[in-house]
Write a structure and sequence with these properties.
alpha+beta, single chain, two-stranded antiparallel sheet, 38% helix, 5 strands, 21% strand, 119 residues, three-stranded antiparallel β-sheet
Amino acid sequence: MKRNKKSENYLDRIPRIKGDLDWEVNDGTVTVHQKNKGIYAKIAQKFFSSPETSHIRLEGQGSYVWQCIDGESSIYEIGKKVEKKFGKDAEPLYERLSQFMETLSRVGYIEFADPRKGK
């Protein structure tokens, strides 16, 4: 019986923050500074006074999770840290954590390392 490559456990994935992303931590709150690039962004900046850079502040648990993303810890391991820090306030833990990771990936803030290659 062949194993499907897609049968990997999502919680085994290892997230890492993209290297070209500008962000900072101030009093425990993470702020991501996202440059608005591209033709549509330039048009919006010129005609609608849109900012060149957006500053996205992550809420408490999101800021904590962000700071746990080290390129070595799996989503499962990050979840254990979140559980220890926030307890029942983190529930439903892995559903929320998985959705947050997918959102970060979709907006281009993180990527997932290949655990087989260590990259």
